[in-house]
Every structure is written in C-alpha cells, then in structure tokens.
Design goal:
The protein is of the alpha/beta class and 220 residues long. It contains six helices and ten strands; from the N terminus they run ααββαβαβαββαββββ. GO terms for molecular function: protein-L-isoaspartate (D-aspartate) O-methyltransferase activity.
C-alpha cells in the first residue's frame, strides 16, 4: 500500500471530525497534526484500507486490535506530553500510538507482550521512520524499571485495577493514563503529587482488549 493524496485528504477529514466531536473533542493541535500526518492505513491489513480513516478499531492479529483514532488521540491529549519527555507505553500493538508519540518528539520506551506483534511492529516502525528509543518484549504490568522514573506512562489495554508498579515509576508531577475496569473501562488519569500521593481523574467509558501479565521481560 502507498500513501496517496487521497489518503491525506481522508486524514484531514478525520482530524476535523475528531476536533468537532460533541463529547471529548480533540483540541490539542499537535495531536491533530499527528493524526493528519501518520498513514494509519499502513498499520492495517490491506483489506481494511478503505475504512482506515473511519473512527473504527480493527483486528491486527494475536487477538489484539488497533484502537479507534479518537481513542488514540484522546489518550495522547490526556498525557499532555512535551518534546523530550521520557514516556513509557504499555502495549505497542500495531505501533500506531507509538508513531504518534514519536512524532511528538518524546523519548519513547514501549513494551509489547505478544512476540508476533513485537517482531512485526518493530520492522514496520523502523521502515516508516517512527522507531522509539527502545522496544521491549515483556510484561507491561511491571513497567520498565531500568529507565524509570517517567514523565508520562500510557497503557493501551484495559486493566482491572491500576498496577502499583506503574505508579511508582512516575516522576513527581508525572501522569499515568490508563483504562480501568472489566468489560468497558473508565479512562483514568493519575498524577503523582508526592512520593505517596496521587490525584485521580476519570473520563468516559472505552473498550480495550484486556491487559495481560506474567511474561518474562526481555529487551530486543
């Protein structure tokens, strides 16, 4: 698949639709520009190309999905990242969210527990020029202590409860964005106020694949 002027037009339309949503509109221009820039259809199987710029999630193999564009944009907006910040992503998946964060010029560490996806996505991100600082094959529940603390942590799978290992890997003032719950999840933001104090904010309900654990972490 190639990236064409037609694809660019569809990305522009998608960004406008995300900015005009009645609920949780995307107002961060940097996030909208990433949506306009990144060719989402290249992260999907070719059979989904015609619908790649609709606000739909699609299967990507290994019982995983690529999130809806609004979900990706909304989580990114909630992160409030700045260039140069150290960010940990739990659940690389297709690599689309990682590409958005790389385009926003953060220092990204991303973890994927499905080896099939890890290998496929690493090759794709390298080829497209959106390679994170490091990709890790391993258990996202444990975070990545080797590079902690982080300015921001993003979880792209539904957790029944917030993993404490992730909270303690945040810097003071750092933000964790995570969907919490079984079935549908509540998008939740934790901000670390001090060593033992966190502020919690809740947003709307979203649907994610479940966050899994108990994989021996490896660095590739």
């Amino acid at each position: 698949m190639k990236d064409t002027a037609r694809h660019q037009g569809m990305r522009n339309l998608l960004a406008r639709q995300l900015s005009e949503r009645p609920q949780y509109p995307i107002s961060d221009e940097k996030v909208l520009q990433a949506i306009r820039t990144i060719p989402r259809h290249l992260f999907l199987d070719s059979i989904f190309e015609e619908r790649a710029y609709q606000d739909i999630a699609f299967p990507i193999g290994a019982d995983q999905t690529i999130s809806r564009p609004h979900t990706v944009a909304f989580q990114t907006q909630l992160l409030e990242v700045q260039p140069g910040q150290k960010v940990l992503e739990i659940g690389t998946g297709s690599g689309y969210q990682a590409a958005v964060l790389v385009l926003l010029k953060v220092e990204l560490y991303t973890i994927e527990r499905q080896q099939e996806l890890f290998k496929k996505t690493k090759l794709l991100l390298e080829r497209m020029g959106y390679m994170p600082k490091k990709m890790i094959f391993g258990d996202g529940y444990k975070g990545y202590i080797e590079q902690a603390p982080y300015d921001r942590i993003l979880v792209t799978a539904g957790a029944p409860e917030v993993p404490m290992e992730l909270l303690v890997q945040l810097k003071i003032g750092g933000r964790l964005v995570i969907p919490i719950g079984k079935g549908e999840q509540i998008m939740t933001v934790f901000t670390r106020l001090s060593a033992n104090e966190f502020n919690k904010e809740e947003y709307g309900t979203f649907g994610f694949v479940p966050m899994l654990e108990n994989v021996q972490s490896k660095i590739r």
